[in-house]
Amino acid sequence: MSAGEIVFEARGLVKRYGHVVALDGADFELRAGEVLAVIGDNGAGKSTLTKVLSGAVIPDQGELWLDGERVHFASPLDARRRGIETVYQDLAVAPALDIASNLFLGRERRRPGVLGRVFRQLDKRRMREEAAHYLAELKFRIPSIGSAVEVLSGGQRQGVAVARAGLFASRLVIMDEPTAALGVRESAHVLDLVRSIRARGLPVILISHNMPQVFEVADRIHIMRLGRRVALVTPTRHTMAEAVAIMTGAAPGETRPAAADSASA
Amino acid sequence: MLGGALTSKTLGPLVVLLAFVAVFSLATHTFLAAGNLSIIAQQSVIDGALAIGQTLIMLTAGIDLANGSITVLGTIIAARLVSENQPALPALLLAIAACTGVGFCSGSLVARLRLPPFIVTLGILGIVTAAARLYSGGESFPVTDPLLGWPGNGVTIGGATITNGILVVVVLYALSWYMLTQTGWGRHVYAIGNNREAARLVGIHVGRTLLSVYVLAGFLYGVGAWLALGRIPNADPNALQSANLDTITAVVIGGTSLFGGRGGVIGTLIGTLIVAVLRNGLTLMEIDPLWQDMVTGVLVILAVAADQLSRERRAL
After folding, report:
1. Where are the strands (E) in chain A, listed by range?
2. Interval A35-60 mean pLDDT
3. Are B1 and A146 in contact (CB under 8 A)?
4. For residue B261, which residues of chain A lie inside 8 Å, CB to CB?
C-alpha cells in the first residue's frame, strides 16, 4: 500500500490562534489507495490539521500539494471542487428526506432536455437508480432507497454521509471522527464502508481517537504531537501501545516517517 | 417517492376534511349545494394564497407574522394610485413589487443577519401596518377598476360561481407544489428546515435559498392583495388582521411541521379548506360564530400534538 504515489501532501503547516500554536510546522502525506489514520492527543493539532486539509482553515504558513500541484483552499468548497469530500462527526443528513435525496443533496441531477433545463425538473428515477447501484457496490444494505433517512439507525445514517462523500470525491475522502457518535456494531458498519471506498481506489484520511478502529482499518498511521507529525507508523510494525506511547511523548517519535522518502524531509 | 410521503402526510388532514364535509352534508340541506361549495372556495381564496407563503417559510423552520399586513399594504398602494387616476396595470405591478420588496427585507434579515424569523416578521408586521395606515391616511379606498376587480369576476355554472381568483389560487398551488417536490430548490428548502447545518455542509447556499423563500412569499402576498381587491372591492388599512394566525392554523392543520422540513402545500390547501368548511358549515347550522373559533383552536392544538408525538416517536 505504501508504495502508492503521493496524492495529497502538506509541508511545514503553521497555524496560530493568538498565543496558541495549533500547528507548528506539520508535514503530511497521503498515498494512493491507502487509508491513512491521523491520531493524536487532545490539543495535538489533529483537528486543525484536518480543517486545513479540508479547506475550513487557512494556514499561516506552509504548502498544500495535490497530485504534485500546489493548491490553495480558501473554503471547503474549493477543496470539494478539487475532488476532496469530508465526512463530519455529527450526522450531516436531512432526516425527513429519503436516502437517494440525501446522497444527491446539493448536487441533484436534472432531467435531460427542456424539462431539466427550463423547468428545472429533477431526474428522480436516475438519482434513485444511481444511488441504488452505488450502495450495492459498497455492499451497503439499506431497507429501501426511497425510505426516509430518519428510519435508519445511527450507523446507517452515517453510512449515507460516508457513501455521499465516496460518490462525489474524485481524489480523496476525509473522515473526521466518523464513528465518534456511534456504538460498536454501528462503527463496524461504517468501517466496512471505509474499506469499500478504498477498494474503489479512493484514498481515505481517517481522523480518530479510537485506537482499535485505527489499527483495524488503517494502512498507515500519522501521529500528531504538539502541532507536528512525530511519526508515521504502520499497524504491522508497531503495536497499539507503541503508538500511544509516541502520541503521549512517552516514547520518541521518528524523525523520518516510515516508508520515508524525500517528500517529507 | 415524495408522492408516497405526500399521501401519508396528507392523509390525516384529508380524512378530517371529508369527515367535516360528511357531517355538514347530513346536518344541513344547503351545505352540499354547488352554490355553497363555490362560496367556500371563494372565501378561501385570500387565506389560500397567503398560506402558500406561510408554508414555504414554515418549511424552513420559520414563521411569518406579517403576511396579512403586507397584503394590506399591497391593496392600499394599488387602490390609492388608481383612485388618483394612475393607470391600473402599473399600479398593480407596483403593489406586487412592493410586497415582494418587503419579503426581500425580511428575507435579508433572516438569511444574512440570522435573526429569528418570529422576531423579524413581528417587527415587519408593526412597520408595514403603520406604513399602510400612514399611506392610506387611515381611509379606505373603494375599488371600481376592472383590472383590480378581475379576480372577483367569474362564470356561473349550475349555481356555482368559479371566480378568476379561484383559478389563480389553483395555479399558485400547482406551481408551488411543482417547485417544492420536483426541483432541486424544493429539496434544498426541505433540507434547510430539516438540518440547516447539514444543508450548509453539503454545499447548499443556505442564505440565498432562505432569501428566495421570503421573496417568493412576498410576491405571493402581493398576488394575494390583488385577490383581496377582487373579493372585497375596498382597500381597508384595517383588514386581514388575523391572516397571520389564520394561515398558521391552516398550515399546521394541513400537517406541515412547526419545526420545519416536513409537510407541503397540498396539506396546506386541505388545511385551508378544513377551516373554511368548518366556518361555513357551523354558520349554516346557525351555531354561534364563537364556536367556530373554539373548534378551530382545538384542531390547531390536535394538529400540533400529532406533530409533536410523531417527532418523539422518531426520536426513539
Report:
1. 6-17, 20-31, 35-40, 61-66, 69-71, 84-87, 172-176, 204-207, 220-225, 228-233
2. 93
3. yes
4. 94-96
Q: Which one is predicted more confidently, B3 or B97?
A: B97
Domains and CATH numbers, chain B: 2-307 (1.10.3470)
The identity of residue A186, as a single letter, is: E
Of the residues A85, A122, A126, the best mutation for testing chain B's interface (the one with the most B CB atoms within 10 Å of its CB) is A122
Q: From the list A76, A80, A146, which residue is nearest B1 (CB)?
A: A146
Q: What is the pTM of this model?
A: 0.90
Does the pLDDT value for residue B186 go beyond 70? yes
Nearest CA in chain A to B195: A94
Mean pLDDT of B172-195: 97
In chain A, the domains with their CATH numbers are 6-93+169-264 (3.40.50.300)
Which one of B2, B177, B197, B202 makes the best mutation probe of the A interface by having the most chain A beta carbons within 10 Å?
B202
CB atoms A92 and B195 under 8 Å: yes
Over the range B123-149, which residues count as b (16 or more CB within 10 Å of their CB) and which as e? bbbeebbebbbeebeeebbebebebbb
* Nearest chain A CA: its distance from B116 CA (Å): 21
Please judge whether B197 and A95 are an interchain contact, meaning their C-beta atoms are less than 8 angstroms apart: no
Indicate the average pLDDT of chain B: 93
Q: With contact defined as beta carbons under 8 Å apart, do A74 and A58 qualify?
A: yes
**pLDDT band with cut points at 50, 70 and 90 for residue B4:** very low
